[in-house]
Amino acid sequence: MDKGWISIHRKILKNPLVKFSSKYSYAEAWLYLLLRATYSNQKVVLGADIYHLKQGEIITSQKKLRLIFGWGTSRLKTFLKLYKKDNMIDVKTNKKLTMITIINFSNLQKKRDTNESQKNHKQSHINKDINKVNKEPLSVRFEKFKEKCKNELPNEHPEYEAFVNWFSAYNEGGSKMHWEKQKTFNLKMRWATWIKKSKNPETKKQNLNEKYPYDKTGNSRLGKCESCKSTVFLDKWNPVLDSPCCSGSKVIGKGK
User: Burial, 114: exposed, middle or buried (Cβ in 10 Å; 0-12, 13-18, 19+)?
Assistant: First the structure.
């Protein structure tokens, strides 16, 4: 298991479950430098000075490193001298600052870049269909969305047309429909939420009919006690959902 390489996100330094020792080991100090090194050329302003950092460089101070590593002056100097001698880093120091360069950082970055196509593979897979769809003309996507709604949703429902019109509406530039601008979009889940929030009296009436259907005479509605599961006859126009047979229980839909 000593071959190959892994990439480690810089956020590991802020993860409370991955705590470094109060007094760093050499390995922890080395990992810290790798994570703090610039990944590309950057401009850094410190006080009244501007520093142009190249890939793999860190600008800091020995005082700051001693505080972070929990070391004294002697241990820090030994660490820097040892890693410089092994050609792992280069160190330049003045009275104020210390510039550390990771010698092999660019080579490690090249390896990372050659494997960039594998990065975020899972997310790419999730967005694959959406990206493919968005390359199609809006008119084609519009018709496909309407067809999907027609096949998966109850077309005769009083809210159907309003739902389809809302989510198929597109922005002023005509590049995306409303549903395409959502972070996630599950058609049936969106439909269920839409119906639940609807204030249309016809929708409420249909929902009532589906949940508490009429009995054979058409004079009462049918439900069942949530506790004993026995059938309960409800008022046709204003059903009371307190169970008449089990105290404290409710009447649920016959179909549940």
Answer: exposed
Q: What pTM does this model have?
A: 0.43
Backbone φ, ψ for residue 91 (5° rounding)? -130, 130
Tell me the residue type at 95: K
How many angstroms separate the most distant Cα atoms in the chain? 96
* pLDDT value of position 126: 45
* Residues of the chain under the 50 pLDDT cut: 1, 112, 114, 117, 122-123, 126-127
Angstrom CA distances, 132 to 139, 161, 163, 242, stand at 15, 27, 24, 51
**In the beta sheet, which residues pair with residue 250?**
242
Angle (nearest 5°) at CA 123 between 117 and 127: 105
Which helix or strand (DSSP H or E) is residue 225 part of?
strand 220-225
Q: 137 φ, ψ to 5°? A: -60, 150
